[in-house]
Each structure stands twice: as structure tokens, then as C-alpha cells.
Amino acid sequence: MQSSAPGTASPLSIAAIILSMTVLALGNGIIFTYVPYTLARTPDTRWAADFAIAAVALGGLAGSFLAGPLIRRAGHARLFAVSFALVIVSEAIIAMGTNPLAWVLARGIFGAAGNMNFIITQSWINHAASNDWRGKAMSFFYMTYVIGLGFGALILGRLPEGSNIAPVVAIMFCAAAIIPVSLTRLPIPPAPASVKVDLLLAWRNSPVAFVGILASGALSTSVQSFTPVYAAVNGISQETIGTLMFVMALGLLFVQYPLGALSDRIDRRLVLVLTCAIITVSSFVALGVSFAAFVTLMLVFSVLAGSAESVYSIANAHANDRADPSYFVALSSTLLIAWSISATITPLAIGALSPVFGPKTFLWSAILVAVSYASFTLMRLRQRPAAPDEQREGFEIRTAQVPDAAALSQPEAQPAPENP
Fold first, then answer.
1. In angstroms, rounded to a whole number, what is the distance separating the alpha carbons of residues 157 and 217?
2. Degrees to nearest 5, angle at CA 371 with 368 and 372
3. 314 within domain boundaries
4. Structural domain containing residue 401
5. Which of 29, 221, 224, 386 makes an SS bond possible with 267, Cβ 3.0 to 4.6 Å?
């Protein structure tokens, strides 16, 4: 496969890449639910569930820094195979039996490999797509990956408990996912830029967007990652938690679309405040709903997951509204790193506080983050006017389940401005 001019491929040409990542998502959905659920079921290993969640984000942070140099050394196609191989290694470690420390290590390996997957995939799609359909292509990629995660959790619910069949099935999905992209004739893109981190740039560009990305990292890990732990502590079956995680994935899509469309019509900061209000209300309702009322609980957690994930996409759009296009690379790289840091620290904090406040600590964490972020955004509304309509970009569906590595898809990174 040779490199070609960007934006010259057809929409159908990226089907193999999206298919590979969707099949991979089926296995990832199994493991994302299986690991915290299994570790949390036994008091002796419950502590490892929190560290395993944090290890994914920490590994992803390392993968963000390693991907650029490794792609320049080996190329997109080879590193794509390497990243899938690392996913299989991480799942094989889990399949060998419950060993808390080994499982934490395995999740760290997965986090690094996962971010490499996303960086390569988004780089390939960005290079192949023209401006006319790039946004639709990325939105479709996010949507299919999230649906794949949900179906993976649903598949887990149909697998027998008390065996290693779940990670074995995940390995099969990962191995199968290598096939479509290995057979594609789509030209490879140039090597991506190295990560440029400038926290001051991100803050000066938009404090609301920067803090929103930090809040998103906390909200995503609080809601998505700790729900299986909460279910395990309550003695819920594997089939029930698989169904719940599937419904939460659908909620991410159905809640995010209307909120995103609304943010294109009015000040995005008002929509972020509304989103935080939905998170707060649904979290409070979730505190009082038991698994005995499972249909109600599914509805509540679906709204909670969808609104929590919406903070990420709307804050990203708000950051782009405020930024000069020539500084998208440095800005987006910084936001990616900021999200990863927040997503690493939050599960450790929840794990430390759970023995004091109980298994519902993750819901209280979501409430605290949502209320704090809404208060900060309301304060900023008084201090800075909305972005002019001519500078606002169209909303694109995004999810914190797929790190935004678009910044790492550019051949060259731009220097950060001194006075943005």
C-alpha cells in the first residue's frame, strides 16, 4: 500500500477499516464488562477493579505518546497489526485465570494498544476522506464502534459464568478483526505528528472546553467503568449486567444526538449546563432505584450514560468554535492528554472513597463533577460572550469511549500561539 494525496478515496474504501474496528469492539465490549465485574464479585480482588479501570486510561496515555514514533518507524499497516497483537496478549493474560496484578497489567497493555488502534484508524480515515464527507465518516465510525461495545456486553451476558470463555471469545473477535484491514488496498497516510501538549493554550482558548474535557474523563470512568462493579457488588448476574451495558451504549447514541443538535442552535455552554443537570438528576434517581426494578434502572442508566458522554462531544465542539484552525493540532493533542489524566485519577479516587461511602460512590462522584462543572460554566457565561455564528462548526457525534486522536493524524504539528 502506497501513500496517496489526502481526500482522494471514496467513502466505500474505508469500509474495511471501520469493519475491523467494529469487530474489535465486540471483543472489547466483552472485556470492558467482564474484568471489573469479575474482580468486584470477590472481596479479596475488589480493590483490583479500580486499578484495572485506571490502568486502561494510563496505558492509553502512554499509547498516545508512543504511537507517533512507532508509526514513523514501522508504518501504519505494521503497527496496526502490532496493536491488535497486544490486545490479544492482554486478553490471553486474562484468560489464564484470575490474577489481580496480572489483570491490572493486562488492562494497561490494552489501553496502550487501544489508543494506537484509534490513532491509526482516525489517521487513515482523515487521510482518505475529503472535506465533504469526513465528518460523516468519523461520526459513522464512532457510532459503529459504540454499538459494537454494546453488543459485546450483550454477548457476555449469554456466555457461561465461572470459566475463561469470555476472554477466549474476545480473542477470537480480535483475531478476526485483523482480516478486513489486512486485505484493504486503501493507501496509507503519512506519519502522524508527535503529541504537542500546551495546557495554557487549551485554557486560554476556552476554559469551559478545557474543564469540560477534564470533567468528561471523570464522568466517563465514573459511569461507564464502575457500573459493572456496582452490579457485581449487588450480586447481579452476568446476563443482567450485559443487558444493562448494551442499553447504556444505545443511550449514548439516542441522548447525544438531540443534545448535539441543540448545541448547534444555541450557545453550547447552555447545553453543557443542561447536560450537567440531566446527569445530576439521573444520578440522584439512580441512587434510589434498585436492580429489582430493572426496566426502570435500565432507562435511568441509559440517560445517565448518554448525557455523561455528551459532555465530551459538546466540549470538543466548543473548543473548535473558539480555536484558530491552524492550532487545532496542538489544542486537540492537549485535550486528549487532559482527558486521559482525568480518566486515570478518577477511578483511583473512587476506589479510595468507596470503603467509606459504599458502592454508590461513583454516582456521587458523577453528581459532584456535574454540579461543579455546571457552576463553572454558568460563571463563564457572565464573563465571555458566545462564539460568533460564522466561527461555529457543525456538531459531530463523538464519544469518550473512542479517544479523539484527530490531532495526531496530521503530518506536521503547528506550534502553539503565544497570544491565541
1. 27
2. 80
3. yes
4. 11-409
5. 386
Give one word for 117, left, alpha or beta, with left for phi > 0 and alpha for psi -120 to 50. Answer: alpha
Q: What angle do CA 405, 407, 410 make, to 5 degrees?
A: 115
- List Cα–Cα distances, 130 to 7, 125, 192, in angstroms: 4, 9, 18
Label residue 97 left, alpha or beta by phi (over 0 means left) and psi (-120 to 50 means alpha): left
Does the pTM surpass 0.90? The reply is no
Cell numbers linked to 31: 472485556
Tell me: the pLDDT tens digits for 79-116? Answer: 888 999 999 999 999 999 889 999 999 999 999 998 88
Which sign, positive or negative, has the C-alpha torsion 209, 217, 351, 345?
negative
Q: Are 245 and 153 in contact (CB under 8 A)?
A: yes
- Give the Å distances, CA to CA, from 145 to 142, 188, 402, 409: 5, 21, 8, 19
Q: Which residue has the higher pLDDT, 405 or 66?
A: 66
Amino acid at 298: M
To which residue does cell 497483537 refer?
85
Query: What pLDDT is recorded for position 416?
Result: 42
Residue 361: CATH number of its domain: 1.20.1250.20
Buried b (16+ CB within 10 A) or exposed e, 23-45: bbbbbbbbbbbbbbbbbbbeeeb
* pLDDT tier for residue 196 given thresholds of 50, 70 and 90: low
Evaluate whether 361 touches 189 at the Cβ level (below 8 Å). no
* Range name among 14-23, 178-187, 287-296, 393-402 with the lowest pLDDT average: 393-402
Those residues whose C-beta lies under 8 Å from the C-beta of residue 100, and which sit 6 or more positions away, are 39, 45, 47, 48, 51
Rg (CA), the chain: 20
Tell me whether residue 4 is in a domain: no
Place of cell 453488543: 151
**pLDDT confidence tier of residue 246, bands split at 50, 70 and 90:** very high
Is residue 1 in some structural domain?
no
Number of domains in the chain: 1
Q: Other CB atoms closer than 10 Å to residue 129's CB: what's the count?
A: 22
Say whether pLDDT at 414 is over 50. Answer: no
In a domain, 320, yes or no: yes
Task: Out of 3-7, 196-200, 245-249, 314-318, pick the least confident.
Answer: 3-7
Residue type, 318: H
